Amino acid sequence: MQIMDAGNTVAPGTMASRTVSDPSPAAGEVLVRVAAAGVNRADLLQVAGSYPPPPGAPTWPGLEVSGTVVATGPGSGWAVGDRLVALLRGGGYAELVTVRGDHVLPVPRGVGLVEAAALPEAACTVWSTLAAARLSPDEWLLVHGGSGGIGTIAVQVARAMGAHVVTTAGGPERAALCAQLGADVVVDHRSEDFVARTREATDGRGADVVLDVVGAAYLARNLDVLATGGRLAVIGLQRGARGEL
Q1: Which of 83, 99, 117 corresponds to the end of one domain?
Q2: Which of 66, 86, 100, 206 could be bridged to 113 by S-S, CB 3.0 to 4.6 A?
Q3: Residue 240 within any structural domain of the chain
Q4: SS3 166
C-alpha cells in the first residue's frame, strides 16, 4: 500500500509517498480501506519533525480516519462493508489501516466519509470532556477557541445538551461562525474581556464549566470566571503548561 510519510523519515516540514506492506487484522481488529484522514495539531507537529509517534505506532502521521471495512479479525464485532470512523495511534495517512474494533464507530446516516473523517478526535474529545465535567441542561459553558476544531464541535454539542454557550474567538469572521453554530455569546478575545462578558451574560454567576485549550496563559482568568461549584477542563496547552495562582 501507499503511505504519506513524514517526521523522522523525511526532511522536517515535508511529506513523501512510499510503499509499505499491507497490514493484516489481528484478533479483535478490522482492516479499513481509508477514504479520508483528519488533520490534527499532532499530525502537523509530526510533519514538522517535533512530534515522535508513540512506541510501536507507525512512523507516518494520521490519528483519525474514515473508511470501509475490507477484512476482519476474529471477534472484531464488525463486518466487511461497514462504514466506520476510527481513532488511531498513528498511521492514518495510508491506503489501509488496522484498528481495534472498540476504537471505531459507525459513520452517522447522512454524513459522507470525507466529513466523517474529521469527527473522531474532536467529537470524542468534546463528548467525553463535557461528560466528565457533568455539563447539565441550562448550565453555562465557556469554550475557548470556538472557531477551531474542538470549539466548533463543543458549541454544537453543548447546545444539543440544552446548555448555554459563551465562546471566545479572534476577529469578526471567526466570531460570526461561532454565532452561526449557536453560541449565545461570542467574545472577541482581541478586544474584549471574556471574564466580564461571561459574568454579564450569567447575571454575575460565572460559567458552570470552562473548556480550555489555551493552558497557562488563561489559568487565573479561567478560575476567576467560574461560578461557585464550577468545573475547569483543560485539554490543551497552546500557551504554556505552567501557570501561577
Answers
A1: 117
A2: 66
A3: no
A4: strand
The CA radius of gyration of the chain, in Å to the nearest whole number, is 20
Look at 11-20, 23-32, 128-137, 208-217 and tell me which has the smallest mean pLDDT.
Answer: 11-20
- 129 and 177 in one domain? yes
CATH of the domain at 72: 3.90.180.10
Q: Would you state the pLDDT for residue 7? A: 64
Domain end among 85, 117, 149:
117
- Kindly tell me the sign of the dihedral angle through the C-alpha atoms of 129, 133, 138, 140: negative
Distances (CA, A) of 190 to 2, 145, 152, 168, 197: 44, 12, 19, 9, 13
CATH number for the domain harbouring residue 175:
3.40.50.720
pTM for this entry: 0.85
DSSP 56-121: TS-SS--SEEEEEEEEE-TT-S--TT-EEEEE-SS--SBSEEEEEGGGEEEPPTT--HHHHTTSHH
Burial annotation 11-33 (CB, 10 A radius, 16+ → b, else e)? eeeebeeeebeebebeebbbbbe
Domain span at residue 87?
2-117
Q: Which of 107, 86, 108 is nearest to 97 (CA)?
A: 86
